[in-house]
Amino acid sequence: MGMAWIVLLLGAGAIIYNHVYRKRMYREIDRLEEWKINLMNRPVPDELAKVKQLNMTGETEQLFERWRQQWDDIVAVKLPNVEEQLFDAERLLDKYRYRQARRLLGQIADGLRRLEEEVHEIIHEVNELIGSEEQSRAEIEELRAAHREAKKALLAYRYTFGSAADLLDVRLTEAEKQFQRFAELTEAGNYLAARDVVLTLKEELGRLTSMMEEIPKILGECQTSLPAQLAELADGYREMEERGYILDHLHMERTLQEKREKIEQCLAMIHELRIEEAKQIVAELKEEIDALYDLLENEVLAHQYVQTEMPRLSGMLQELAAEAKETEAEALFVQQSYHLAPSDLEKYRSIEKQLHQLQKRFFLIQDRVAEAKTAYSLLKEELEQLVSQIDLMKEEHEQFRTMLQTLRKDELIAREKLDGMRKTLAEALRLVQKSRLPGLPEPYALELAEARRSLQAVAARLEEKPLDMPAVDQALEEAKAAVERLYERTVEMIEQATLAERTIQYGNRYRRRYPAVRKGLEEAEFLFRHYDYEEALRQAVAAVEEVEPGAFDRVQKLWQEDNSREQ
């Protein structure tokens, strides 16, 4: 029973699917039928009718015939074929041959797409032809007006175009012939070729108009402005030579001649209407002429520099020589008192040598200025180098003098440090005295002797002549370490001795009751009397802590409170 139901359901499903699929394919046939009708109703005949208003000859006639034939072929052959195919598709559907019907419908859609493109192309080409005719008619009038204006301007202001006027005439006459050519092509119905003539004319007249605007300006530069500047440069150059300037290195006459030749070259280009090239040359000339003005101005500025710097440098070198003499005397004096490193002496000899060389160079420049055979700009360069070398030498000299002064300053600082360390040592001994210790442990006595010896070593170094400051500094470092170590040891020793004494006193309360404590304290007292305060403290703390844990903390606390009260 169940199996029968499944078969029935499957059968029903197949019928429903079949029905839906057929319906969809019939809808596709309707859509393609509508597309075919739409193509047939496109306004191609109306568009072709517009072409008939043009001159139906030549190119236009050929194009019209081609478009009309194409449209006739579409309407009479290609669209009826589509109709036939749609009918075939319907027949296949009726016979349930879905796969073949679907393939055929795909082919019909491709065919209609191609026909759509063909129709679109015809309409586009028709519009292009009609549009180009309308546009050309409008633009040719504007171009005639522009041509008239150009001819009028050439006639009225011919002199402003110089030798370029003849070629401008020729080009404008050539352009005029193109108007005639346009009329002939339009008459012959060759509207697309006529459009090309319009575009060529537009470009040519644009070029000629632009040239006619630029030529008078460039001619003015080449005939008036630039030659005037070159003449001005030549006058300035001669005047400066008369005033004693040395300008041979500028090769001014040859350079000016080159510029004049460039102007001639520019005029020849204008004559040939090579305006862009001429503009480029004018721009280059302007830059080059500015550079020549700069060169002459540089010489004037260099002359002023030499005039003001020579006396100033002479004064600087004299001042440096005087300072060097003072430094020499100072160095000799310092050498008697201090030991100077070979590198320091070498530095001073180098400064002396440099000074002689700089003086020599200055005198050479002085002679060249007097001879008046060298350009001021070259002399200025040499003087600038000399100035920077003098500045460097002054810096080195200053460093050397500072080093000499530092030596004296270092000696005073060393003596101050020695005094400070002596005070620290005296303070340590005062603390020992104040603490009334029964005596000093041997290691401490040795450290004290070492600290005293190190201070004597510094004092001895400071008495040496010449004074060797690196050796003094070395002795100072050693003494500082020894004195600081001793001071710390003193404070530590006094603290240990005091705490040992107080712990013994604190432990006395347990002497009678605890024989072990008595023994420990007696041993601590023995050590204390023999100046071993560290061990005495250790023994005393061990004895007391055995019977009273934390006793040493209390002793320490009481001692700290007494200390703070004393302070």
From TrEMBL:
Main function: Negative regulator of FtsZ ring formation; modulates the frequency and position of FtsZ ring formation. Inhibits FtsZ ring formation at polar sites. Interacts either with FtsZ or with one of its binding partners to promote depolymerization.
NCBIfam families to which the protein is assigned, alphabetical: PRK04778.1-7
Main localization of the protein described in the UniProt heading: membrane
Key word Membrane present: yes
HAMAP family referenced in this protein's UniProt entry, alphabetically: EzrA
GO cellular component: plasma membrane; septin ring
Entry keywords, A to Z: Cell cycle, Cell division, Cell membrane, Coiled coil, Membrane, Septation, Transmembrane, Transmembrane helix
Annotated localization: Cell membrane
Residue stretches in coiled coil: 98-153, 256-337, 369-410, 445-496
Family note: Belongs to the EzrA family.
Topology relative to the membrane: Single-pass membrane protein
Organism from which the protein derives: Geobacillus zalihae
Highest rank taxon of the organism: Bacteria
GO biological process: division septum assembly; septin ring assembly
Annotated protein name in UniProt: Septation ring formation regulator EzrA
